Structure prediction request, 287 residues.
Amino acid sequence: MSAPRRQLGLAQLSLLNTAPPQLVTVAAEAGFDFIGARVRSVTPNERPYDLQPGSPMLRETLARMADTGVTVRDIEFLLLDGTDKRGAWLAMMAAGQALGAASLTVAASDPDPARLADTLARMTEDGRSYGVVPTLEPISYQAVNSIPAAVALARTSGCNIVVDALHLNRFGAVPGSAQWRDLEANLDLVPMLQLCDGPATRPADRAALVAESRSERGVPGEGGFGLADLVNVFPADVPVSVEVPSDSTVARLGELGWARKLKAAADAVLQEAMLQEADNLSKAGTR
Prediction:
C-alpha cells in the first residue's frame, strides 16, 4: 500500500498581490489542494482583501472554491503587540468561519509573556465559537522567537503552533539541536508546516531578516535548509503550505508560472523525503 499523499497548499504570502478568489484559481491550475488567505493586512502598503461575511469577494472566493475543490485551511495575519486586538481577531474569525478555515496565524511582539499568554487564551476561547484555533508562529525577529517559547505559550493558552522552515533555521532549530528535539516532542501542537528555502547563513541584522521573510525567500530544494529532514519530522497527515515570497520572480514568471514552479519544487522535496524515510527504514531493518 502506498503512503498517503501529503496535502499541499499555497500560502497567500507567495502571491501577496493576488486576491483570494484569483489565488484559488491559480492554486487549482497549479495543482495545490488548499490556500491560505490573508483576511487582514499586515502593513499599510498591502492591498486589503475584504472577506467578511456578506462581502462580494467572499462570495466570489467561495464560488471558486466550490468550482475547483481548493479549500482554505488557514487565515492570517495578526501581530499581538500587547494592545487590545480582540475586535480584529473576532472579525478575522468570522471571515475564517465563512471560508471554512481551521486556524488563524498570529505572531507576537508583546514582550510580556504573562500578558501574551492571557491574550492567546482569550483568543483560543473566542475561536471555539468559530471553529478557528489561533496558531502562533515563532518568528526570528519577534518576541516569540524559539520553539520552547512558543510551546510554553501554546501549552498554557490552548493555542497551536505553525512551523516555518525559514524561521526554524534563522533561530537555530536545526537537526541535532535542543530546539529540534523540542519540536519533535511537541508535534501534537503543529497542524501545518510552512515550506521555503534559503541560504544556511543567517542575515546580518533584523532589517535583513524582515526583508528576506516578507519578500525574497528561496524555492524549496534550492537552498541550504535540509527540507527533507524537516518534512520527515511530521506525520503524513500534517499538511505543507508553500510560503515563498519572491517579488522579483513573480514579476518575471507571472502568478501561474510562479505557482507551478513552487508546486513542482515542493513535490520534489516531498518525494525526496519519502525516499529518505524509506532508506532509513530499510537501514533500520538490516541492523
Q: What stands out?
A: The beta strands are 8-10, 34-38, 71-80, 103-108, 133-136, 160-161, 163-164, 193-195, 240-242.
